[in-house]
Design goal:
The protein contains four helices and no strands. By secondary structure, the chain is an all-alpha fold.
Length: about 160
């Protein structure tokens, strides 16, 4: 059985991929804040209109949707919809003891697909391009999950 230890190359591969995805997701929150400060808008809560050092000239229009801020929020929402599946599927997958090469291809392939999806979304590329990168990650999740199911069933 696979050891849940960073000395195990399979688990270490998972840990690297998982931490990269978690850092990316957390980074999206910071990117949202940075974008709101750049735009001086895109705020969501009425209390955000209080005069503060970070908002010295509050105005009701700051609560209006701001496309540049909303784009970051949509990217973050997409991460939040997909990341939990990856974290669980990846962990269960390494418990099937795949080859290290297969684990690296799939886990790092997922990371690359999500980073490319981010880049396409952030730069306003077409839906087709975003969907292509999203699909690659989705197929990886499906493969890992089905393999885990088959191994767990003894098939």
């Amino acid at each position: 059985m696979t050891s849940i230890s960073l000395q195990n190359p399979l688990f270490a591969t998972y840990a690297i991929a998982a931490t990269l995805m978690i850092l990316k997701a957390v980074g999206m929150s910071w990117l949202t804040v940075v974008r709101m400060m750049q735009e001086k808008g895109g705020f969501r809560s009425p209390e955000d209109l209080r005069k503060t050092p970070l908002n010295p000239a509050p105005h009701p229009s700051q609560l209006a949707p701001n496309e540049r801020v909303e784009r970051i929020r949509r990217i973050q929402m997409n991460d939040l919809e997909n990341l939990p599946f990856f974290l669980v599927a990846g962990l269960l997958f390494i418990l099937t003891e795949p080859s290290l090469l297969l684990a690296r291809l799939l886990l790092f392939g997922y990371v690359v697909s999500r980073l490319l999806h981010f880049a396409a979304y952030f730069t306003g590329r077409t839906h087709d391009m975003r969907a292509t990168f999203w699909s690659v990650g989705s197929f990886i999740l499906i493969f890992m999950t089905v393999r885990t199911l088959l191994v767990a069933l003894g098939i």
